[in-house]
From TrEMBL:
UniProt protein name: Uncharacterized protein
Keywords, ordered alphabetically: Membrane, Transmembrane, Transmembrane helix
Region Disordered, annotated ranges: 283-314
Biological source species: Triparma laevis f. longispina
Domain of life: Eukaryota
Length: 314
């Protein structure tokens, strides 16, 4: 009998098979968004935002499926879990840093969020690397290692970085949403897409933080062990199918995010075209007749015309 939607004894990893499948689906959808934005010549930061998350979820699918064994409550893990999980999180952190560039520069909120992302990357990478060289590695998803309160220290180190990243992830989209709302977006629809890109993350990484952290805090307040709290957390995580609803929320967030990216591109394209038209207009007004004669013709004898086919007669 399984734990909720997970296997009978999940080794510290949510291995809900629907969640595993959704990791790959999310990876494909996000990669498609990255390709679409790239074809539109959107800012490279918007493309990296989607591509980074895509890589993160493809690697995440492997870690929740084929490599689902970490040193969560013992000193054993799958041989490939930590390298791929570190790569997964670091890709998502790169994605978040790319999106954060759209926020107004030199604000305290942006700076603190950026630092939190860097710190989470350092904790995740160093913790995962230490685990790879210190815990006992197994080829499958099960082991017969004895339980240890709190698991391996390196794994707890990495999990601290994961928790910090989830908070910084929400902060990133909130900071950017506020900045774009004030500085860039004008219509109700644009502002709605922008708001929802950040808000739905409460059901994504926000849900993970709540489900993972609250049982441990309650256990410690009651004088019980960290391991007891972590067992309740894993059971609750699987019962609520957090791994499924979390990914659906992230997918929704990135659909809104991609829309915001395309809106900003269209604004930039419109401004650029307007600037070109204005420059041509100013040249005519200033009497810059290089290549133009007194009858409003250019050097090729063609009349100067502006948008909509309307002619501007000097």
């Amino acid at each position: 009998m399984g734990v909720g939607a997970c296997s009978p004894q999940p080794e510290g990893v949510d291995d809900d098979q629907i969640g595993v499948l959704l990791n790959y689906v999310a990876g494909v959808v996000l990669f498609s968004l990255a390709v679409k934005l790239y074809s539109m010549n959107v800012s490279i930061h918007g493309v990296v935002c989607e591509a980074g998350m895509s890589v993160g979820y493809i690697f995440g699918g492997l870690c929740h499926g084929s490599f689902a064994n970490r040193a969560h409550n013992d000193n054993c893990a799958n041989t490939y879990f930590y390298p791929f999980f570190v790569a997964s999180y670091d890709s998502m952190i790169v994605s978040s840093l790319a999106w954060l560039t759209f926020a107004a520069p030199e604000t305290k909120a942006k700076k603190w969020t950026q630092n939190a992302l860097y710190l989470s990357a350092a904790l995740i990478t160093s913790g995962g690397t230490m685990c790879q060289f210190t815990v006992d590695l197994f080829p499958g998803t099960k082991d017969d290692c004895e339980s240890a309160d709190g698991g391996a220290v390196c794994d707890r180190f990495m999990m601290t970085g994961e928790g910090l990243f989830y908070l910084a992830w929400i902060a990133t989209w909130a900071v950017v949403a506020r900045s774009l709302h004030v500085e860039k977006l004008t219509t109700f629809r644009e502002k709605f897409y922008n708001f929802m890109s950040a808000f739905v993350l409460i059901l994504g990484p926000g849900q993970i933080v709540l489900v993972s952290l609250l049982p441990v805090i309650i256990a410690l307040l009651k004088g019980r062990s960290t391991e007891d709290g972590m067992k309740v957390s894993m059971s609750l995580y699987c019962d609520l199918r957090t791994g499924v609803t979390y990914i659906l929320a992230v997918l929704a967030s990135h659909l809104f995010t991609a829309r915001v990216s395309s809106v900003m591109f269209k604004q930039g394209e419109s401004v650029e075209k307007s600037a070109v038209e204005l420059t041509r207009y100013e040249k005519v007004i200033d009497g810059d007749d290089e290549g133009e004669d007194d009858e409003g013709e250019d050097k090729d004898g063609e009349e100067v015309a502006f948008g909509g086919g309307e002619e501007f007669d000097v």
